[in-house]
Structures are given as C-alpha cells and as structure tokens.
Design brief:
- Helix 6 crosses helix 18.
- The two termini are 49 Å apart.
- 41% of the residues lie in helices and 12% in strands.
- The protein is of the alpha/beta class.
- The chain has an eight-stranded parallel beta sheet with strand order 4-13-12-11-10-7-6-5. It has a three-stranded antiparallel beta sheet with strand order 1-14-15. A two-stranded antiparallel sheet has the order 2-3.
Length: 536
C-alpha cells in the first residue's frame, strides 16, 4: 500500500500544483484555497523526502495525525492511540524513555514520579547517603568458562534475538551498525546470519535453533561442516543454542516456500520454493547428556568461542536434568540466557503469549539458585531477556542473578517501531518488521543506526547514575537487598526476602529444601528429560 501512496503523493503533487495555478487564474478571489492546496502539496513532497520519520515517508500528510496526537496531554493520548495501559505490550513510560534516549532528548520531567507509589507491587532501589561517581559507563562482562579459548568481553546490555525475515533488511542493518558504533552485541535470532548482519560489521551472537539455519543439511539436520565454516567468521563472537523462546515456548514454525526470498534462502541455507520447517524440538540431541555433548561440539567447531544456550524455563525439573548432566559429563556451557515469557517481539498465539512459560524474574531466580546449589554458578554467565527497557529493569535483573541483559523491543523502538502490532501482516507502517521493499525504504539506516547507538549509550549512562546513587562502582554490585517492594498498603519487603540467593552447594549437600528445590533435584536425571515418577 505504501508504495502506491507515495506514487499517488507525487502524482497528486503535480496535479495539485497545476489545479492550484488554474484556480488562481480563473477565480482570483479563491487565492486562499489555492494556497492551501499548494501547501499540502509541498508538505507531501517534504514528507516523502525527509529521513527522520518513517511513518511520514510511508504515509505522507496523513501520518502527521499521529504526531499531533503525541502533542495532546498523555492521559488523553493513552486512550486515543494506545488503548488501556494493561492491553499494550509496553507502558507509556517505557516508550517515552526509549524515544528520548534514542533521540538524545532531555528525559527530565517536573512534578515528581508518575508511578502510584502507594500501590501494592510498587518497586524501588535503595540509595546511599554517600553516592559514588562513576567515570565510565562502558560496563562489560567477560563470557567464557574454563574450556573456552576465545572469551568475549561483552557489554552488559545487548540486542536480543530477532531474525532477518521477521525484521526488514534495513532494520537489521541499522541495528547492527548501531551495535558496531557502540561496541555491543547483536543476537541474530534463529534465522541465520544475513548479508545485512555482515554489512553492519557489529559483533554477532549466532543463535542456532531447531532449524539449524546456517548449519543445515539438505534433510534439515545439523551439518557440522557448515557450522564450522559460519562460526569461523571473526564477526561471530559467541554461538547460542536456542531451546525455546519466551513468546511461544514449545512451538516450532513453518515458513511457506512462497515467502522465501533469495535473501532469506541465502541466510538460512534453504532452497527456494520449498516450505522451511523449524521443529518444536532439536534432532541433534534427545537427552541432557547428549545436549551437553552437543554444546561442547559447538564450542570445538567454532574454534573455542563461547558456547551456550537460551531457554524460557518450563518444567523446572528439566532444567535440573541439564545441570545434573553438566555435573556428570564435566561439560558446562559458557553462558545461559534466560528468556522470560513476557518477551517475544513477533506474532504468537494469544494463549502462548499470555499463559505459557515462566516470567523472567521467576525463571532467572530459579536458574541462578540451581546453578549455585550445584556449585556451578562461577563457571557459567547468565544473561536475561524479557522487556528489559529501563536502567531500573537492568539493575533489577542484575540484582536477581544476571550478568548481563538483552533487549529486543527496546531497540525496535529505537529504530522507529511505533507498536502498530502488525508485525505478522507484512504491513509494518515504519518498515521495521516487513519484507515489503517499498515499506522498508522508509527506514533510513544512518539515522536509525545513530538512534540505536544513542539508546544504548544513554541507557547505560542512566544505569551508571543509578549504580553510583546506590553507592556502587559497577552495576554488577546490585544484590537482592538493594531492591524493595510493597506487598500491601503498609508492608514493604526487601528483594532478598522474596528472591534470596540460595547457599552455594546446597543441592549437592541436600541440606536446604526451601522453595521446593530439593524435591525436584532428587527427581531429575542426567540420562533423560522424562521424569521417572510423572512429576515436573
């Protein structure tokens, strides 16, 4: 639609100018109508040629209504263009902060907090009477265990997994170009490494899903030779096995052959015109021990780069099966990324999006404490993803056990997403989540790459300011006791009361059965995921 609208704008501009001239000649008294028509013509021409606003490039003239609504008071705007706060994936505050930081706009606001601070569930960080000054906000974490030959010095805030195909070529290029400038990582998603990832030149975390795109044999199985060839690229810094994702855990997918473009075929290593299947589970392994052996193989084939896996926690005992396999084989991943069920940028069945999988806070806490209980936490880095937009969100994730955080939709907003929720229709109005060549041209890469860089830089600046205010010299110093929350109108609790760090080695000693860890640990087996007694 957008390409026809732009053509119509140009055609209408020529016709409009001609009619305005005739109107002035025939009816001089109607000069104001001619002037209005000429003004609209010039506005339309300006909209399709400017580079800052993708909406106006795709929807000249009428796109201004969106920005006019933004000038209305926030309380009115919320219902006019966003609906009920509980029915949208991001709050107004989250969107405003992303836009402000991406555009280097002042984010200070008068009249105090906008949060309802006396409501149950309100959370905050404690601060120190002696704050510290942090000079550099380039916060990093080294990822790579004892068996890793090429550790990666990663930013503690990176772009989460979003595949080429789900996002447009221009969106991928803008994200990766911003990541290169800011020195942070870009997770490829399971759609493989596209030419646009490579063109951007930024650090890549190559995600390998059950479709094995980029390392796929003709029958859809894992091809070790192709994997080694792809992983050898210096741009690839880590390799990540995807078990599940927060939006739709437990589901695979099918990309119809009719939707496979030459570029998607190239990135995924699949033939044109043939349906491309991503199974719900992996064919390369079927037991926890086999999974650990596969991760060790990924690390070896990649030349010793950090190898790990990502999942949304489901059956807690199954995660413990994996941890027991680590103990039995002596093989540990270099990292684990915990994806909360609230994450997921693409389309997913409503029931899955709302009711399948464990939210990030519970999943992260469980994984962190299980690794502590098995005495493995110091060997494995933990990443977290799932609506981590604010500096507060990152600080909270770090306090609850994460070593770094990933964000998908935060960076999508930075490249221009307006949350139209049409990702699955190919009609994204800003060119972010579409393969329509005309629509994605509205996303101007240099401008949006700068916004990606700004968003990352300004978010880490805010995180540094919060860390200093808490009396810390680095965000990694956040612990559960820095987090407070209100349970009822008069009661508040500290984070370590609700989400405590369990003792190191408690599962091995079997001396602490709080929160039901031990009963699941005793049922977990390294030899298979299936329970012997029917429990989860």
């Amino acid at each position: 639609m957008s390409q026809y609208l732009r053509l119509a704008t140009f055609a209408g501009s020529v016709i409009g100018l001609f009619l305005s001239l005739l109107l002035l000649i025939w009816f001089p008294a109607a000069w104001w109508i001619a002037l209005l028509c000429a003004g609209l013509v010039l506005l339309g021409l300006r909209d399709v040629t400017q580079t800052r606003h993708a909406v106006l490039r795709n929807y000249p003239i009428i796109g201004h209504f969106r920005y006019w609504f933004e000038d209305i008071r926030p309380e009115i705007r919320q219902y006019l263009i966003e609906g009920d706060e509980d029915e949208v994936p991001f709050s107004r505050e989250q969107r405003e902060i992303v836009y402000q930081r991406a555009k280097n706009v002042e984010d200070k606001r008068p009249f105090g907090t906008r949060k309802r601070v006396y409501d149950s569930g309100y959370q905050w960080l404690t601060h120190s009477i002696r704050p510290r000054k942090i000079d550099s906000n380039d916060f990093r974490v080294t990822i790579g265990g004892p068996d890793c030959k090429q550790p990666y010095d990663a930013s503690i805030y990176n772009i989460s997994a979003m595949s080429f195909g789900a996002l447009s070529a221009n969106a991928i290029l803008a994200l990766n170009s911003g990541a290169r400038k800011g020195g942070f990582a870009h997770d490829t998603g399971e759609g493989g490494i596209s030419r646009y990832h490579r063109q951007g030149g930024g650090d890549l975390i190559w995600e390998l899903g059950s479709g094995y795109f980029g390392a796929r044999a003709k029958d859809g199985s894992f091809d070790a030779g192709r994997f080694a060839e792809t992983a050898a690229d210096p741009q690839v810094k880590m390799v990540e096995l995807k078990l599940s994702q927060g939006a739709k855990p437990g589901q695979g997918g099918v990309l119809p052959g009719a939707k496979i473009t030459p570029e998607i075929s190239e990135a995924r290593g699949v033939p044109m015109g043939v349906d491309c299947v991503s199974p719900a589970s992996h064919s390369a392994f079927s037991t926890p021990i086999e999974m650990m052996e596969f991760i060790a193989r990924m690390r070896e084939l990649s030349g010793g780069k950090p190898a790990g896996f990502k999942l949304c926690i489901g059956h807690r005992r199954e995660f413990m099966c994996i941890v027991k396999a680590m103990l039995e084989t002596g093989i540990t991943p270099d990292f684990i990324v915990i994806d909360g069920k609230e994450g997921g940028t693409g389309a997913a069945p409503m029931e899955f999006a709302n009711h399948m999988g464990m939210p990030l806070v519970e999943g992260l806490t469980f994984a962190h404490n299980t690794l502590r209980g098995a005495g493995l936490r110091d060997r494995i880095r933990l990443g977290a993803s799932g609506k981590l937009i604010h500096a507060f969100d990152i600080a909270k994730a770090l306090a609850l056990g994460a070593d770094w955080a990933n964000s998908a939709r935060g960076f999508m907003f930075a490249v221009g997403c307006i949350q139209a929720q049409s990702c699955h229709t190919n009609h994204c109005p800003t060119g972010v989540a579409t393969q329509d060549p005309a629509r994605q041209k509205a996303l101007v890469v240099p401008d949006k790459a700068e916004r990606v860089y700004n968003f990352h830089k300004n978010t880490l600046k805010a995180l540094g300011d919060m860390s200093g205010a808490a009396g810390l010299l680095h965000p990694s110093g956040f612990l559960p006791h820095h987090l407070l929350m209100r349970e009822k109108d008069r009661d508040m609790v500290t984070g370590d009361e609700v989400y405590p760090y369990m003792p190191e080695g408690f599962l091995l000693r079997e001396d602490d059965d709080r929160f039901g860890y031990l009963k699941r640990w005793r049922r977990a087996r390294a030899e298979q995921f299936e329970p012997h007694d029917g429990g989860i």
